[in-house]
Specification:
Two copies of one chain form a homodimer.
Chain A lengths: L34 H20 L6 H12 L3 E2 H8 L3 H13 L3 E5 L5 E5 L1 H23 L5 H11 L2
Antiparallel strand pairs in A: 1-3, 2-3
Helix pairs in contact in A: 1-5, 2-4, 2-5
Chain A binds a DNA duplex (23 and 23 nucleotides) through α4.
DNA sequence: TATTGTTATACTCTATAACTATA
DNA sequence: TATAGTTATAGAGTATAACAATA
């Protein structure tokens, strides 16, 4: 099926060639052993899960993360939220703007240059429901894992400077 | 410093307020315990590492993955590469085109609709050097982890359908 | 009829620079 | 002088739809 080539001559044999079907070649992938590659792939799967969970709420991943962080930190500064989520000021503005336009968030001046963010009642309701669904979905993924969840999270945390 | 709020009244106290300095508030984050969130953050860090490793080669992450996969599977079909890397046909075309334009890859017709991809000599040289650097960088990250690398990779693999 | 490759296009995320105003 | 928020803009990466050629 798959042939390891040390000389570089013709690796992909046309085995798996079923008459009438498609080849559907299995490719050798040096990427599969790379932590970075596996992280990206796993992250993309979970992001897709998240997107489907958030679709009914009309929230993007970024909007949801903002909503959740403000929900956990009422009256926090917009600049602090941006730092915590690693979202740049310039990108945070329209993000906050959309949630404000939907009546999920309110802002109030702190010093005249800083803004404090707080969830509205509707925002809090949505945030709680969304966070519940997200947590449930997250737990479902963990349950399918053969390894301990805690050490996995710890390892991921160690990579985040 | 940080106050856990069960009632929702005023969580972020302005502790940490150093005279003359910036508040730099530490926000409570329910996201930190989510696997999906931690995966994304860790992935972004490693992607940034990768980008800096690839910069001297003038390669993007996508271009490098393509180069490496074709290098490991000389003569493979373009469509199979796309499936393996989960890159859509429409996006693969310009990716291959750039590497062809740089003389790193050559293609040849297989049946009149399929293309086979192979590295040129220059492409192979670049691929080998790039893969070496990537692998080295990847290992450096693993060394900093307190947990077993193998089980970590296995767990990540389990999430990738 | 399904697949391959291509083109065109759009949408999201992210990144940078410049500006105002405030501390 | 550094920070906060805003605006405008540009660049990736990714998504869909339509098309021609082929199996």
């Amino acid at each position: 099926m798959t042939v390891k080539s040390h000389d570089g001559t013709n690796t992909a044999t046309s085995a798996g060639q079923a008459p009438g079907g498609t080849p559907d070649e299995r490719l050798a992938s040096p990427l599969d052993g790379l932590l970075g590659y596996r992280l990206r792939r796993a992250s993309m799967v979970l992001m897709a899960d998240l997107a489907s969970v958030l679709r009914p709420f009309g929230l993007s991943a970024g909007e949801a993360s903002l909503l959740i962080l403000v929900g956990a930190n009422p009256g926090c500064r917009q600049s602090d939220v941006g730092r915590a989520l690693e979202i740049k000021r310039a990108n945070l503005t329209p993000l906050v703007g959309r949630l404000k336009a939907r009546g999920l968030i309110t802002d109030a001046p702190i010093d005249g240059r800083s803004l404090s963010l707080t969830l509205t009642e509707e925002g809090r309701a949505l945030q709680e429901e969304a966070l519940t669904r997200i947590t449930t979905s997250d737990r479902a993924v963990r349950k399918r894992l053969s390894m301990d969840e805690t050490s996995l999270l710890a390892a991921l945390r160690e990579m985040t400077g």
